[in-house]
Amino acid sequence: MIADSNEEVRRVCTEAFTNPDRIWPGNPFAIEALAKATTHDDWNVREASITALCRVANCNKDTCDPDGILNNPKAIEAVTARLRDAEGIVKKLAIEGLVVLALADGVIDEGDLPIIDTFVESQRDGDPLVSAACSKALAFLSGEAKEITQVFPWMCDSRPQIRKSSVYTLGQAKTPNNRVVISMLRARSLDVFGEVRACAARSIAKVAVQGK
After folding, report:
1. DSSP secondary structure letter of residue 8
2. What's the pTM value of the predicted model, to 2 decimals?
3. Which of 41, 112, 152, 200 is disulfide-compatible with 102, CB 3.0–4.6 A?
């Protein structure tokens, strides 16, 4: 019913999916059904499906359905795919939804790396709205101060000196062993310019040492 052509029907269905009294957060059957609906031809349906999917998948170890799993890969994969959606509102909801899923258990850990890596990769997206939103999401998830996060959008700049300078700044991150920062630096360790790669390696070592 979430794929119904009537907006009111979709709204009611979305509310039903996200009502904890009816569907336990993390319910695998609801997640599978909603994940399929995110590929519907009608962008309105995709919009409603993503909204419901992110709410259903948003759970921690204390609230997750006994048959469900945390950081459900089907939910993450379905929402991530919509970063390539033709509609801007759908892409925006996908980015916001991934942030919600990353913070579902209150910490950024190994289980959130697929989301973080997706944001890092999407910083190079041809749509400036997507790349900017992903940089903003990474800044939020990193928990770093503005003097660090302000260079996030420049990590994929076409000028190698700008990338090198940004990589150096990330090496000054204050959060011990920051997973977001390290993920961004690892991407630059594959840079086509050797100086950027070398700077990335030094910055990774510096950030990692802070965690010891």
Report:
1. H
2. 0.78
3. 112
